[in-house]
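Quick note —
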Amino acid sequence: MALYFGKTINACPAALIKLLSFYKFQPHFHLFFLHQSTTEGALDEFTSKLIQRNTSKWKKKQILAHNNDTNLKHNFMKIRISEDIENLDMNTLNELFENAIECDDVTAIIGLTKQCTHYNKIPSLKVLLSALSVCARLGHRDIIVDISNLCERVRPELLKENSFFEHYIAEALWMNGDITKSLSIFEKVYRENAYLRRKIRTIMKYLIKNCIRNHSQATLVNLLQFSEKLVNEYNDYFTLGCIWQACILSEWFADQQIAIDYLLKYQGLCNVIINKVPFVVKMSLKQHRTEIVYRLMEVLLQYEMKSEISQVLLVLIDYFIKEGQFRQCREIIVWSIEHDIQIVGISGNHKLMNMLAKDVQDKIKVKVTKQTPSDYHF
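Predicted structure written out below.
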């Protein structure tokens, strides 16, 4: 691609610096620096240290207060769980579960579940699902099964509506390393219960992010097969989009290539990930990984998504100006002209365009038209 630029130069022509200083074509370009006096600098440094010191004290107090509150809740839970819940009303039972959920206290949830099983009592559905979510996230499959058995005796209709909580069991299995079986259950629930598809998407988004980060190639293959089934059978690109984002931001070239290949394979995926592009570009440039941005632009160019490319180019120019790499800015301008891509906020600045792209001035055609006042007569 034409955007693989040459070596960076640290210095730039005086005329270019002067021009860039004169034309403030983007407010977020970091081109202007205010040189403060020594006195002002010392005062600012003193003020910053004072604010930082006070902020640190405030944070310590906040942490201490939070820890005290957590300890109080744990002590409260120990006292209440030691009591029988047989005579507790629904609100009190909900409160006990909510405190345990807030602290991710699985021990308390287990204790409450055992008592609920003994007395055939369950909290409200909202609280129950939150407790199941905590258990699933921490891999406690047995507790989920116990709650499922309890509901079967007390409120069997909840099981039918929520597919016997199998999606929580699938998440717990995933956390315990049995990803193949987990995906099989997720697929089954997705197919049988349209009501739970949104919940499954939310769970998968969290699981995929951690999975790609750990770089398990076998798991990635299974994930891709699962997501492609959702695409082909239900036209659902959400899971594949999550995999794409995790892969394109991966430090491994193989993962990045998978992301690019799937963009080329599924045009529908390209439409889905458009809203992810700004985040991907921002995170890539934050780590100075411009090659990912270039490869992504190649795909966008194939689909003629010039509006999206324009936004990416603008971010690239901002990045290179921050880095002091003005030659790269010039290369971007030249490339945008060659591919007929208008960069918002820059393309209209013809003097700047001519300066940055002086080698291709014949490609820049500026038409200046002046309206004749209506009261003029010739």
